[in-house]
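Page 47, continued from p. 46.
Same chain as before, 80 aa.
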Amino acid sequence: MKYVNFLQSIEHPDQTYVGLADDLRSRLAAHNSGRSPHTSKYKPWRLVTYVAFSDVAKAVAFERYMKTASGRAFAKKRLR
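Result:
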């Protein structure tokens, strides 16, 4: 399974992150320990929601969409 995950910074709630992971727990732990350069500045993070995909191509396409302006607007309205 591939997971598209939506994270929100606990200390900076306006900061969000969309990512793709095989293992949600270890990926969230990596973000919170500072091992990811893109998210280390705004740690700690909380998992807002995730979507599981059995098809890797669909997971990648959904993650790309969620990183567009339209996808961010959808997430803000429907997923938080």
